[in-house]
Each structure stands twice: as structure tokens, then as C-alpha cells.
Amino acid sequence: MKAWAHDLDADKKSGIRFLADPDCSFTKALDLDFDATPVLGNHRSKRYALVIEDGKVKEAHVEPDNTGMSVSVVDKVLG
């Protein structure tokens, strides 16, 4: 994520923030996790992007499967 943030020049001016969720607690609270135990050993986050304004989720871009990249890509989110 650090490399993505650097490449996109994410800072306070752009309004883009990249946040890690190492223990999946935020993701689980949003019910956006899935059980990948057989393959990866634990629960993992679905691929998603949130648009948040004034502390409220305005848009949620959640991939319909756990591997694709059709709705959470930058052109769909920031379009």
C-alpha cells in the first residue's frame, strides 16, 4: 500500500488515504471478510474501496468475487 500511495501521491491535498487493516477487524465489522483458511490460513478481506465523506460511507465498491478487479479499480471509484 505504501508504494501505491507514493505512486498516486496520496496525501491530505488529494483526499485519498490508504489504510491497513492487519487483523481484519474493520473489514469484519463491515462484513467484507471471507474464510480463506484452506488456502491462506485465515480470514481475508474481500477486495473493496470505500468513498467516505465527512466520516460517512457514501459509496462502497465491493468486488462480486474474491479475486476480480471490476468495480474497485480507480477509474470506477474516482471515475
Automatic annotation (TrEMBL):
Residues 2-78 form the Redoxin domain. InterPro entries: PRX5-like, Redoxin, Thioredoxin-like_sf. GO terms for biological process: cell redox homeostasis; cellular response to oxidative stress; hydrogen peroxide catabolic process. It comes from the Eukaryota. Pfam families: Redoxin (PF08534). One of its GO terms (molecular function) is thioredoxin peroxidase activity. Keywords: Antioxidant, Oxidoreductase, Peroxidase, Redox-active center. One of its GO terms (cellular component) is peroxisome. Belongs to the peroxiredoxin family. Prx5 subfamily. This is Redoxin domain-containing protein.
